[in-house]
Design brief:
Arc Repressor Mutant, subunit A; mainly alpha; about 65% helix; about 160 residues; 6 helices; two-stranded antiparallel ribbon
């Protein structure tokens, strides 16, 4: 018998959280109209980063998206072909290219984000009781802390 049941509880909790986040992400994609764009979730994530951060280098995008340079290059090629982004030489270093979003990309990202926010607002209004509102706020704070966790030293 394990004297400390916490690791098993943490593993089960982690799996439940992962499953819930997967279902919520899928629901947000469906509700926002993301499927109709013809772009993958990865491509849309890169596009949103270009909109938010641009003009930006591919290397910076790879860091922001936590993916390889090759993955970023593939996504950028699709986004360029779709006419959503363009590149220009970096004035500081002509060997580098800066990626910028076209107006249509900004509109697309804004519409997708608005669709997601609209769905979540409606769901919160319909599913969360007024006395549970603070629980939602606390859950958001906890998720933000989990997302920001620096576990590089391996310590709990």
């Amino acid at each position: 018998m394990n004297a400390n049941p916490r690791p098993q509880q943490s593993t089960a909790t982690a799996q439940r959280l992962n499953d819930a986040m997967k279902r919520l992400r899928a629901r947000l994609r469906a509700e926002s109209g993301q499927h109709a764009t013809g772009l993958t979730a990865t491509q849309l994530g890169v596009l949103a980063s270009v909109v938010r951060e641009g003009p930006v280098t591919a290397a910076r995008l790879a860091t922001l998206e936590h993916v390889s340079a090759q993955s970023i290059a593939q996504s950028l090629a699709v986004l360029k072909a779709a006419g959503l982004i363009h590149s220009e030489p970096d004035p500081q270093d002509g060997r580098k290219k800066l990626m910028s979003a076209n107006a249509s990309a900004t509109e697309l990202v804004d519409n997708l984000l608005a669709g997601r926010a609209s769905f979540l607002a409606r769901a919160i209004d319909q599913v969360v009781a007024p006395d549970e509102q603070q629980d939602v706020e606390k859950a958001i704070e906890l998720l933000e802390r989990l997302a920001a966790a620096d576990l590089s030293d391996g310590a709990p």
